[in-house]
Amino acid sequence: MPNRQKKFIFCVGGVLSFACVLVVAAAMGTQFWLKGTVLCKTGAQLVNATGPELEKFMGRISYGLFHGQRLKQCGLGGRPLRFSFFPDLMGAIPIVLHGSVLFFCAVLIVFSAVASAFFLFNAFSRPYETLHGPLGLYLWNFICCVCSSLVMTLFASEVRFHRLSEKIANYNESSFVYKTHSEQFDYSYWLILFTFLTHLLNILLIRLAGIQFPFQEAKEPDVSSGASDLMY
């Protein structure tokens, strides 16, 4: 591939990696990772509410990695409340799992920035081999793919298996019991999937630039043809 086209591909990869830095940083600061509805089970059972009457006991909840808000309804109007995971809910959430999500988000930001720098370094400089050359481009993008998949998996397990929404809704509640009615991941969660796909695209761009995948066996040169070439 001509050197100019290779530089262009590396520049595109650098811009995409830097975009991932901004996207993940913005996603971490929002409260739009998950949204859902919670049912005031105690209030609904007291009046034996069914069908449309359940709407009076249906509240809403949305949260991210640091903060969120909930609207509790138990038949007497809504009670909006904002909350923070740190330090308000440290006793209610699976702190190790939630901390792992934050940790891998931070690692994803760092290595996306590293990948962006290495793309530009390979585009405008003469990198030496190992981590400054093609191997580094593959390595940093592969690490970003792993981290983004871990963020999605850990957050999904925190929500589904540890019933994070119910723990938030029932925190410091002594009179009412709340039960999750519906949940769906919001757009900040899907931004992490966008990051994963972007780094996967970067790996394909590196291969498009003519750089072989790591550990791929190089084709052995034909010794006989080389000897015949020397004769002429």
TrEMBL record:
Leader peptide range in chain numbering: none
Which InterPro entries does the record match to this protein?
Clarin
Q: Where in the cell is it found?
A: Membrane
Return any one Pfam family short name: Clarin-2
Describe its membrane topology: Multi-pass membrane protein
Sorted UniProt keywords: Membrane, Transmembrane, Transmembrane helix
Which GO cellular component does the record give, naming just one? ciliary transition zone
The residues that cross the membrane are 95-123, 135-156, 187-209
| Keyword Metal-binding annotated | no
Provide one Gene Ontology biological process annotation.
synapse organization
Chief site of localization? membrane
The entry sums up its family as follows: Belongs to the clarin family.
The protein's name in its UniProt record: Clarin 1
Q: Which organism is it from?
A: Paramormyrops kingsleyae
